[in-house]
Amino acid sequence: MFEIEKLVAGFYLVAGREGKDDELIRSLGMAAIEEVNNNLSAGADLQEGQHNLLMLCVALTFYQYALIETQNQAESVRVGDVSVSNDKQKLLDAAKQLKNHYLQATKRYMKSKFVEFKMI
Hints:
single chain, mainly alpha, 4 helices, elongated
């Protein structure tokens, strides 16, 4: 139903990180597409909600990517007098907000709730 190329393009628009981690993004995107396809209600008018469903796949991909990315980043780095902090929570909050928005926007097309992924 959804083309991975459209999902990847949407991801890069949302994340602003073109060309970085392409293989990971494609894997996460394929998993998101499969999850959305598996949770679609029988008989739902998918043509009407196609954009929101694609954006749900993008949002799920972005959220998973944010969870992985924030686990791999240092909280802060200090070199001499220079200190750089990384606010992981802002990225996670933005990704979660986007995911929740499109979960709400596509609610009528889905038969069940999605699994909630959390950082461990």
